[in-house]
Amino acid sequence: MKIYGLIGYPLSHSFSKGFFKEKFEKEHIEGCLYDNFPIPGISEFPSLLEQHPQLHGLNVTIPYKEAVIPYLDDLSKAAAQIGAVNCIHFRNGKKTGYNTDVIGFAKSLQPLLQAHHQHALVLGTGGAAKAIMYALEQLGITYTVVSRQPVNGAVSYESLDQQTMEAHTVIVNTTPLGMYPKTETFPEIPYQYLTSRHLLYDLVYNPAETTFLQKGAAQGATIKNGHEMLILQAEASWEIWNK
């Protein structure tokens, strides 16, 4: 039996387990199992591997996309540059980290891009944000990071004025704000300056339309949630594990 799974904490609303269960059934993939492995601390990662020697691949979610790196033997070029991992491949006793969030996001965003989508605001600074920044660079879109805490090169939410909002026509929410069950929360950006030229992308997929997206749609903006990105990154993980 080949075992695959997801590490993170908590994992009560994981997408991956249901996705792979359905994939295995639909595509008649036998001898494979995908399970959730909620570990309260990343220090429990080595003992998890000891308990499950049949592990072929893992996905990694919040809060371990960066913290897992010291436990790995190697990183893909993208994962090394991003500094975050969401996919681990076990092969010949070696643990290699990849980042398929980049693939999923770029493929999902690309069909929506128009000529005026040159500059982006990236809301948040976590592991997911790092993948988004890398993908935007690959797509030739410059970006400004927005953060509650003043970190390297980031701007504050309070500093977002009409001029900034008009100049940045792509806005990506990489924070968990708006995610079930706290659906009433949303990033504090000046939504009144959004127009039909704006494209709002939310990595959150549950609910399907967050308050962030609803507020964008009300201003005529194009909106998209993270569901397709999740499917694309999961398929990219499966390819890595089976190449």
UniProtKB/TrEMBL annotation:
This is Shikimate dehydrogenase. Residues 6-88 form the Shikimate dehydrogenase substrate binding N-terminal domain. GO terms for cellular component: cytosol. InterPro entries: Aminoacid_DH-like_N_sf, NAD(P)-bd_dom_sf, Shikimate_DH-bd_N, Shikimate_DH_fam. Pathway: Metabolic intermediate biosynthesis; chorismate biosynthesis; chorismate from D-erythrose 4-phosphate and phosphoenolpyruvate: step 4/7. One of its GO terms (biological process) is aromatic amino acid family biosynthetic process. GO terms for molecular function: NADP binding; shikimate 3-dehydrogenase (NADP+) activity. Keywords: Amino-acid biosynthesis, Aromatic amino acid biosynthesis, Oxidoreductase. The keyword Ribonucleoprotein does not apply.
